[in-house]
Design goal:
Elements: E1 4-12, E2 30-31, E3 34-37, E4 55-62, E5 68-75, H1 78-88, E6 92-94, E7 96-98, E8 101-103, E9 105-112
Antiparallel strand pairs: 1-9, 2-7, 3-6, 4-5, 4-9, 7-8
Length: 113
């Protein structure tokens, strides 16, 4: 059985300061990363996650070049969390921006097995 994947991404960014930012060019000041290459976990026969069912979420730090930096898996089954984390490391993104400049941001990938 192959893993199916929910594409429900959530981007987060921490902004310092208490000033109100108004976009001068009409674009939003914060644009979240956009997933451009989703890699699904390989749970084919012979892999530890084969025939396991459950969910895992991996929060990835999307770097300014669109690659994945640090990963933070969450879930209840370590095998599924490991499979999801390994797949998430190979995903690619269009980086998020703040005030028009690429900025590292977190993005949640939700996997359902």
């Amino acid at each position: 059985m192959h893993a199916s994947t929910w594409i429900r991404g959530v981007a987060t960014v921490s902004l310092l300061g208490s000033g109100l930012l108004i976009a001068q060019n009409g674009k939003p000041p914060v644009v979240p990363p956009r997933l451009i290459k989703l890699v699904k976990p390989d749970c084919s026969k012979g892999n530890l996650c084969h025939d396991l069912h459950g969910e895992a979420t991996v929060t990835v730090n999307v770097l300014t070049d669109g690659s994945v930096g640090d990963t933070y898996p969450k879930g209840t089954n370590q095998i599924l969390m490991d499979a999801a984390e390994e797949a998430a490391r190979h995903c690619r993104f269009e980086p998020g921006t703040f005030a028009g400049k690429p900025t590292s941001m977190n993005f949640d990938l939700h996997y359902k097995f």
